Amino acid sequence: MDVSVADAKNKLPELIKAAEQGERVTICRRGIPVVDLVRTKKPSRKKPMLGTLKGKIKVFDPDWWKPMTDKEVDDLFGGGE
């Protein structure tokens, strides 16, 4: 099937459906073929894999989320000038 760029803009969902069904769709600009729309060889719908980083992340300070004390802030930023 050959279609113009203008027709492809207006009929993209239908052209995708045709390509999914195995039909080769050629998009032409001024009568010259520029793009072929074809189905991919295999769908890439992979399910997300949860827990792939389990055991790979090391927490050095289990209290990292707690607010710093005033002394820790002073020691870190050289307070008391």
| Oligomeric state of this protein | single chain
Name the average pLDDT: 87
Main sheet: strands, sense, barrel: 3 strands, mixed
Q: Spell out the helices and strands N to C.
A: EHHEEH
Structure description:
- By secondary structure, the chain is α+β, with helices and mostly antiparallel strands.
- Helices cover 28% and strands 17% of the residues.
- The chain has 3 helices and 3 strands, in the order βααββα.
- A 3-stranded mixed sheet has the order 1-2-3.
- The chain is elongated and about 75 Å long.
Structure keywords:
81 residues; alpha+beta; three-stranded mixed β-sheet; 3 strands; elongated
Provide a quick synopsis of the model.
By secondary structure, the chain is α+β, with helices and mostly antiparallel strands. 28% of the residues lie in helices and 17% in strands.
Topology (elements, then pairings):
Blueprint: E1 2-4, H1 5-10, H2 12-20, E2 25-29, E3 32-37, H3 70-77
Parallel strand pairs: 1-2
Antiparallel strand pairs: 2-3
